[in-house]
Amino acid sequence: MGKPTGFIEYLRELPLDRGPAERIKDWQEFHHHMDEKRLRQQGARCMDCGVPFCHTGKLISGAASGCPVNNLIPEWNDLVYRGLWREALERLHRTNNFPEFTGRVCPAPCEGSCVLGINAPPVTIKNIENEIIERGFDEGWVLPEPPAKRTDKKVAIIGSGPAGLAAAAQLNKAGHTVTVYERAPRPGGLLTYGIPNMKLDKNDVVARRIALLEKEGIQFVCNAHVGENVEAQLLLRDHDAMVVCTGATLPRDLHVPGRDLAGVHFAMDYLTASTTALLAGDSKSSPIQASGKDVIVLGGGDTGTDCVGTAMRQGCRSLTQLEILTKPPNDRDADNPWPEWPRVYKMDYGQEEAAAKFGGDPRRYLTTIKRFVADKSGALSGVVTVEIHWEKYDDGRVVPVEKPGSEKEHPAQLVLLAMGFLGPEQPLLAELGVERDARSNIRAEHECYTTNKAGVFAAGDCRRGQSLIVWAINEGRGAARECDRYLMGSTDLP
């Protein structure tokens, strides 16, 4: 695909970002667009590789290799190279309901498994994907497509995150009457409240897609917390099927002395409060503020990075990010071969911003918090950290062990816990009577998505555990297919 010699003629290019020191002054998306000539050159780099791995969507060594929604990447790269943008959009929408989301926030496992990436910089797949969908909106090609006819079946979707939206979109295409129940004031779930605005604009991007889904006939009911102010059993009674897409929102806690001090917060509480304030028109009204404070973020994943970027925009005085894992190497290790996801050192947008203001990468590896420190008034004033190393036991367990004499005290008036999630919140699952696995996730086999309750399906993080948005879209589409098969006896959904 693309130009046969394109990978030789053109270097990998990405659109310029606004400078880190400049972009922390506001909450706007920070990526610039690339001109069409250079975009077509990037599409031309997609080589005729024979067996493309970019769209495989396999789990290798616990991480995604290739695109989990099986995007037809070589095909639409070739179409972009040839200037056939509308055809590229059609190809993209065949597999991905929301490329404007994945084109912004997906970590791009497709690029990690690009054949060109074996010995050269991979194709800029993620950027091309985003440019295709944005071109589609700009040109007026993305229009509501309500179904030609309706069935007499009604489906309730619980949760309006990426899995819920994908399930709703597909079931609506099949002609079913779909209602999405969301406990927050706005639909979008994680897309609206969990991802900061500078990565994914809430009005220009998320609300745009929600409005399109509404025009296609999907109904959204917000402030509807199923299991609390909405009875789950009534929904089951009034609908022919249900798809549970509540996410994995139970955060992992840190049980060390001083945890109950004011100023120690879960990352998602912090990010949600910040976005809620921004949507209300006053970012400074968030009840959890980093302004003028020494901030420590515990956790080195995407959520931790989002906390870093948010604290930078709130005007923190200093920032340190603690990571319990080892610093990744600059290049792939021998035990991390292509097409596995490359576990290599990189600086994401948040670390770039902290480095621009404070002079270096804020991350401290092989370090965790041992206890929180209070001042004389009982307020959080600092943390005591300890360095660790990892020890492997004969039974295969790998556990962190403190390094003697490594304790250090750091000033901190705000600590954000971004250590991942344990699974879905349990009360709703208990009320529905669905079985759970050993990790507390809903027991429903992948590609089937059926629970032990007839007519109840599960998709996304509440089924597979904390994962990528693109996996949630994959599962939402799959659950819709199986739900349609349950309702109609057969299905045409992919």
Write the layout of secondary structure elements.
Blueprint: H1 6-9, H2 20-23, H3 36-44, E1 58-60, E2 63-65, H4 73-81, H5 85-93, H6 99-105, H7 109-112, H8 125-138, E3 154-158, H9 162-173, E4 177-181, H10 190-194, H11 202-215, E5 219-221, H12 232-238, E6 241-244, E7 250-251, E8 264-266, H13 267-279, E9 294-298, H14 302-314, E10 318-323, H15 349-358, E11 363-365, E12 367-374, E13 380-392, E14 398-402, E15 408-411, E16 414-417, E17 421-423, H16 426-432, E18 456-458, H17 461-464, H18 469-488
Parallel strand pairs: 3-4, 3-6, 4-5, 6-18, 8-16, 9-10, 9-16, 10-11
Antiparallel strand pairs: 1-2, 7-17, 12-13, 13-14, 13-15
User: Strand count, sense and closure of the main sheet?
Assistant: 5 strands, parallel
Number of domains: 3
Largest beta sheet: strand ordering: 5-4-3-6-18
Which whole number gives the mean pLDDT?
A: 96
Name given to the CATH architecture of the largest domain: 3-Layer(bba) Sandwich
From the spread of the alpha carbons, the general shape counts as globular
Distance between the termini: 24 Å
Helix residue percentage: 25-40%
CATH class of the largest domain: Alpha Beta
CATH superfamily of the largest domain: FAD/NAD(P)-binding domain
Ranges where pLDDT stays below 50 over 5 or more residues in a row are: none
Number of strands: 18
CATH fold field value of the largest domain:
FAD/NAD(P)-binding domain
Number of helices: 18
- Radius of gyration (Å): 23 Å
Supply the helix-strand structural class. Answer: alpha/beta
In terms of DSSP E residues, the strand content is 15-25%
